[in-house]
């Protein structure tokens, strides 16, 4: 018996009937032989961690554009926090932790520079619109490894696609990631907003803190425990009072932080920058060599969109400067 087979045997004995067993995966678009050490979902996790798009997350905005401090979240730290929360829930519910982790680590691979401001800008520019969760799937299916993609399993790709809106994921593990993503960002965005002086803990209404708690760690603990205690083999859910307070927290953050002119003032510049890059890059001669294949196969606007979506904040700004801002003459 191989290590993988032993792991799959243990899954069958230990995991919940609603868990996705590794041996029952719907497989990959391109069939591959089995690995003697790792299950399919472990292999997917490793492929995501080692891909270029994952490394770029460390320089992509979460909420505050290119923050100066060392302690603000980026897309990478957000992704790691989602993974930790989702794995805790999955383990408690006896779901497949490896599948949960793979979906968590891949869920934001397609996110744009400048956070949701960049996403909105590309959505306005690209025919048919732009949604980061669809782009995350495109990254793993079409863009990574010079067009070969990562050849991930169906369950991981489905969980990535369904992590934020629209239909529920096919697996319970994918549904766990969806709630873990929201638990993570609402709470760590409070932390960053406090650090930036945009709000204070005392500003959060008592209708929220009285149920969820008066600190980030307490709120996360309350939410995670409620998911674990209230979910069953059919649904991932919170207790009604906790779910209601969580909804109020989302509304509070939307009005206090996500629409706050102090926190988001610089975002008004993002559409101009993204728009200028898009107009320049949709000409095939201006695309880098590795994106010209995409232009030939899927069109120049698609290639420009893919290239911009993959940029870090800093790279996008520097490219804009190199194209549109005159350089000083050097003697």
Strand/helix succession: HHHHHHHHHHHHHHHHH
Fraction of residues in β-strands: under 5%
**Main β-sheet description:** none
List how many beta strands DSSP finds. 0
CATH architecture of the domain at 42-232 and 241-266: Orthogonal Bundle
Kindly name the structural category: mainly alpha
Under CATH, the topology of the domain at 42-232 and 241-266 can be stated as Hypothetical protein af1432
Task: State the helicity in percent bands.
Answer: 55-70%
Radius of gyration: 21 Å
Distance between the termini: 70 Å
| CATH level-4 homologous superfamily of the domain at 42-232 and 241-266 | Hypothetical protein af1432
Mean pLDDT: 94
The low-confidence parts are: none
Describe this structure in words.
With 331 residues, this protein is mostly helical. It has a domain at 42-232 and 241-266: Hypothetical protein af1432 (Orthogonal Bundle). 60% of the residues lie in helices and 0% in strands. It is built from 17 helices and no strands. It has helices at residues 3-14, 40-49, 52-56, 75-92, 97-106, 115-125, 132-143, 154-161, 172-195, 206-212, 216-230, 240-258, 261-264, 270-281, 289-298, 300-309, 313-324. The longest helix is centred in the middle third of the chain and has 24 residues, at 172-195. The protein is flat and about 70 Å long. The mean pLDDT is 94.
